[in-house]
Design a protein that fits this description.
The complex is a heterodimer of chains A (about 475) and B (about 500).
Chain A lengths: L3 H29 L5 H29 L3 E12 L3 E10 L2 H22 L6 H20 L3 H19 L6 H32 L4 H4 L14 H18 L8 H4 L5 H10 L4 H8 L1 H4 L3 H23 L4 H22 L2 H21 L3 H12 L16 H12 L4 H32 L22
Antiparallel strand pairs in A: 1-2
Helix pairs in contact in A: 1-2, 1-4, 2-3, 3-4, 3-10, 3-15, 4-5, 5-6, 6-8, 8-11, 8-13, 10-14, 10-15, 11-14, 13-14, 13-17, 14-15
Chain B lengths: L7 H17 L4 H27 L4 H5 L4 H5 L13 H14 L3 H4 L4 H16 L3 H10 L2 H9 L5 H23 L9 H15 L6 H9 L2 H8 L3 H10 L5 H24 L3 H21 L3 H32 L15 H14 L6 H16 L1 H26 L14 H19 L2 H22 L13 H11 L1
Helix pairs in contact in B: 1-2, 1-7, 2-5, 2-7, 5-7, 5-17, 7-8, 8-10, 8-14, 10-11, 11-14, 11-15, 12-16, 13-17, 15-16, 15-20, 16-17, 16-20, 17-18, 17-19, 17-21, 17-22, 18-20, 18-21, 19-20, 19-21
Classes of the chains: A mainly alpha (about 475), B mainly alpha (about 500).
């Protein structure tokens, strides 16, 4: 009979191994160009989710039964350079990670079951489930990460799968454009997290959360990091959080992300992915509490985002965008709660909100049917929804606010006009200089690829 | 006689050379391709045995027992060491898989004979540390690309001017080093500056970077790839500049490389053509390798050497995936969406995987090297760390942008099957497996690169004194202790 510690280690291993194995199986078949039948893929997803979920629930039960609040499992050092560097893989089961891991399995499982029917005979069925597996793996790794480097790994997996799912419908250019926009914002977020990880690593010599956040159980750890250090790390984390959770000024990507199929919108932008930022803040909360200024910034950012999302959401004309902004306003409030130090409130808010939004998103395709059923039941039209703009008496103020909401706070325009356009112009200018220089050196037109038309000489298509 | 006692390294170099002569006699592209694959494959196997010789710990005397080098040259000129032991097989596999992945459509344009000759030169270059021999090989290896451009009737002047400058500066610099007392002590500024400039030109450091994109513009993709991806310029920097250059020379090189890394990454994100996009992506990575070397700590150098290895495999694989795309659809612009995914899903997956591997995505070969590089850069200066992270982030954006433009966003209509052929599939999948394998189990690779970094730093310390090495080492590191002791004395 194995002892409790061995059992917990085995269960912890299963929690991580089940989505890893699913990703490996689906990934390998994609790489080899093998098309697995839909039923078999659905079965793989089912087995992976149920196995991971049962193992996570068993750990929770053990923790509640034994009264343990913190179970670190050291999987080992992934890379060691003695005396210089080590990259440890460590997962932690505590009151923060276990609920999020269980939530990830439950919602992913629900969406997996929904998607097997919703995506039935869709051309990208295999691709969808491949990306779904990467996403689930990323979520589980991020939830359970015991070191900042491990968290970064999961964070990146979630980002890539999300961006590729936004561009899921490959025959139109809009999903690809929006996918690229989402990916760009995520890269900014990833860069900030990577820098935060490295700074944290240097503050304590390792990226272990236990070392960084001090002793004690979540959320009662006491970090020994100074106020100044906490501010620097916290600001970097905040940029990462703002990118991932679509807080201001990065909120523009959230409605763009609705280009993806409904199941992915539900699980990523409605429920799980959009909450990852708040989760990161919760994980780092002992560190954040060391700087009052930082907490103030977090509260301000959360509340501003909530108000902005409420206004923008009020004028949306399609249900997925409206839901995405509704989701964002709640995320803003959760972030503010973390800044105020209400950790448990924020955690319960996050869990409840994620479940509610998933339900709403999966009902989206049958919304008109639902409305018709309701109207048939009450025998009359449903009353029109009220908007905040009717309550504002001044005409000019109301118009301005309405335009502001309709233009989604001009956030995308601002980023495009003041960051993206000058960036592209500057590099295009450098490119033209390079062209002039190589034209001068070669004494003729040096670029033959400027006006390419297809197919070219010697290509397979030429022979068709 | 033990099989490992055979002179595998010389055999690998010789086989490539003989192969070049044999293949040059074939006029039929199919036949040339078959023999090209055979010779590059055999050469790769030999380098694999040479690598095994090194890692099982065979002594130089054992290896030299059946070697013809002492008889030919009076001493051993070509040998593997801690630095080159894994790089030489990596270069050989790059040549082998490029030959394997050459599609029928490309066979007429890809010169297997020139490719084998260049492989022979490249393997010899990476196997020697003799300065003048290295300079001679580096100089000769600039010729096959010139003939490639000549044969294709493409503009040659940009390439020729830069390579001539490289060779002149390299020869001038090393002559000055010899005149200034030899390579056993720090080089004088008038010797170091030409060497520094030569390396900058060869590595495509700003402002001498335009030849790389011009080269990709005019050469065939396979030949272009094989010439730049092994990073011969970085090898020259490690062998000729790093051991003897004063710290300010390395700092200057590092600073210019950092600028290039960010600049080229930015340029990669706005390119309208796949070839130029790849060239800029390569420039950014090559510069990041140089940044790590310049920081002169064990950590940064380990990261840099890991990144070097990753560039050969990841960017090599990425380049081959791009070449496979070109074989089907011709040169494609990054101005319009092409929607090629449905026609060749496996190619799309490999393209994305190799591309992400090169930019350091988790679970790929480049991940840990980027981590090490950022970690060591932040230790020295937050600004350097920030710049490295920005370069990595921009490279990631550029790769996914290219993927979206090429494989999504439109419906492509074709009347023929555009799936990957068996040979291409084998080549690209091998790269994909190496990238994932190295990414999931990075420790063996990191350990060998760390040993190589220690050897390089020790060599520099021997020549310049301990004070010249590891200026950025943490206080508990032996090199830092040496420095303190030296100052106290």
């Amino acid at each position: 009979m194995p002892d409790s510690a061995t059992l917990i280690h085995a269960l912890g291993f299963i929690v991580v191994a089940s989505p890893t194995l699913l990703t490996a199986v689906l990934g390998f078949s994609s790489l080899m160009g093998w098309k697995l039948p839909e039923e078999r893929q659905a079965r793989f997803v089912y087995v992976a989710v149920v196995t991971g979920l049962l193992a996570a629930v068993a750990i929770l039960a053990d923790m509640l039964f034994v009264g343990t609040r913190h179970i670190p499992i050291n999987i080992g050092n992934w890379v060691v350079i003695p005396g210089h560097y080590h990259f440890a893989i460590k997962i932690v089961f505590d009151r923060l990670s276990v609920p999020l891991a269980i939530l990830s399995f439950v919602l992913s499982g629900t969406i997996g079951a929904f998607a097997t029917r919703y995506m039935h005979r869709e051309r990208g069925y295999n691709r969808f489930f491949m990306l779904y597996a990467i996403f689930m793996l990323g979520m589980v790794i991020t939830s359970l990460a015991g070191t900042i480097e491990t968290l970064f790994t999961g964070w990146e997996l979630v980002g890539l799968s999300s961006a590729l799912l936004v561009a899921f419908f490959q025959e139109r250019s809009a999903p690809a454009r929006n996918g690229l926009w989402v990916w760009t914002i995520y890269r900014v977020s990833d860069a900030a997290l990577l820098l935060a990880a490295v700074v944290m690593h240097h503050l304590r010599g390792e990226g272990d959360f236990d070392q960084l956040l001090g002793g004690g159980n979540w959320p009662f750890e006491h970090s020994a990091v100074s106020s100044h250090e906490a501010l620097v790390v916290g600001l970097l984390l905040l940029v990462a959080v703002a990118g991932k959770s679509a807080l201001i000024p990065f909120s523009g990507w959230l409605p763009r992300a609705m280009e993806g199929p409904t199941p992915s919108s539900a699980v990523f932008y409605g429920s799980l992915s959009v909450h990852l930022g708040a989760f990161l803040l919760l994980r780092a909360s002992p560190l954040l509490q060391n700087s009052q200024l930082l907490c103030g910034i977090i509260i301000a950012l959360g509340l501003t985002t909530a108000v902005y999302a409420y206004l923008a959401g009020s004028v949306q004309t399609d249900i997925k965008s409206a839901l995405s902004f509704a989701s964002l306003s709640q995320v803003g409030i959760i972030v503010a709660e973390v800044g105020l130090g209400f950790h448990y409130v924020a955690l319960f808010h996050l869990l409840g909100h994620a479940c509610l939004r998933t339900l709403q998103f999966v009902r989206v395709p049958s919304l008109l049917q639902d409305y018709r059923s309701l109207e048939n039941a009450i025998g009359e039209r449903l009353p029109p929804a009220g908007t905040p703009f009717k309550r504002i008496s001044a005409n000019r103020g109301r118009e301005w606010l309405f335009r502001f909401a309709l233009e989604r706070g001009y956030l995308d325009s601002f980023l495009k006009e003041y960051i993206v356009t000058p960036y592209i112009k500057a590099f295009r200018w450098c490119d033209s200089l390079e062209r002039r220089w190589t034209d001068f050196l070669s004494g003729e037109d040096s670029r033959e690829t400027e006006n390419v038309t297809k197919p070219h000489f010697g290509t397979i298509e030429e022979y068709s | 006689m033990n099989i490992l006692e055979l002179p595998w390294l010389e055999t690998a170099i010789g086989l490539a050379l003989v192969g070049s002569i044999v293949v040059s006699r074939f006029r039929d592209p199919d036949r040339a391709s078959r023999w090209g694959v055979f010779f590059t494959g055999a050469s790769f196997l030999c380098t694999l045995f040479a690598w095994l010789q090194f890692y099982v710990g065979m002594s130089p005397e054992q290896i030299a027992r059946y070697s013809i080098q002492p008889k030919l040259f009076g001493r051993t000129l070509f040998a593997l060491d801690e630095l080159t032991a894994p790089i030489v097989p990596a270069v050989a596999i790059l040549h082998f898989l490029s030959a394997v992945a050459t599609s029928r459509a490309h066979m007429r344009r890809f010169s297997f004979a020139w490719s084998l000759a260049a492989e022979s030169l490249r393997l010899a270059t990476f196997s020697t540390s003799e300065p003048w021999l290295l300079i001679a090989l580096l100089s000769i290896s600039t010729l096959p690309p010139y003939f490639e451009l000549y044969n294709r009737r493409k503009p040659k002047r940009v390439y020729a001017l830069h390579m001539a400058l490289f060779v002149i500066l390299l020869v001038l610099g090393w002559t000055a080093v010899e005149l200034g007392g030899g390579p056993s002590k720090a080089a004088a500024w008038w010797a170091a500056i030409p060497l520094l400039l030569a390396i900058m030109v060869r590595c495509g450091t700003v402002p001498a970077h335009c030849w790389v994109s011009d080269w990709f513009e005019h050469a065939s993709m396979g030949i272009a790839l094989l010439y730049v991806v092994p990073l011969s310029g970085v090898y020259a920097a490690v062998r000729l500049v790093l051991p003897i250059a004063p710290s300010w020379v390395l700092s200057s090189l590092g600073m210019m490389s950092l600028v290039t890394a960010v600049y080229a990454a930015g340029m990669a994100t706005i390119q309208r053509d796949t070839r130029r996009f790849f060239a800029q992506l390569f420039l950014s990575h090559a510069s990041l390798v140089l940044v790590g070397l310049e920081l002169q700590s064990v950590l940064s150098m380990t990261g840099s050497l890991c990144l070097w290895f990753s560039v050969i495999l990841s960017l090599g694989g990425f380049g081959l995936a791009l070449r496979a795309v070109e074989a089907r659809f011709g040169r494609l612009s990054l101005n319009d969406y092409h929607g090629l995914y449905e026609h060749s899903p496996a190619l799309a997956v490999c393209f994305l995987l190799t591309g992400l591997g090169s930019v350091g995505f988790p679970a790929t070969l480049g991940f840990i090297s980027t981590e090490l590089l950022v970690d060591s850069a932040v230790e020295l200066s937050p600004y350097i760390g920030f710049a490295v992270v920005v370069a990595a982030a921009l490279n990631g954006i550029a790769v996914v942008r290219a993927y979206f433009y090429l494989f999504t966003g439109a419906r492509h209509v074709s009347t023929v099957s555009l799936q990957l052929g068996l040979r291409e599939r084998i080549a690209v999948l091998t790269f994909a497996m190496l990238i994932l394998g190295g990414g999931l189990f990075p420790q063996p690779g990191v350990t060998t690169r760390e040993k190589a970094a220690e050897v390089i730093l020790a060599d520099r310390a021997k020549r310049l004194g301990p004070a010249a090495t590891e200026p950025n080492a943490p206080k508990d590191h032996p090199a830092a202790e040496h420095t303190v002791d030296n100052e106290n004395r």
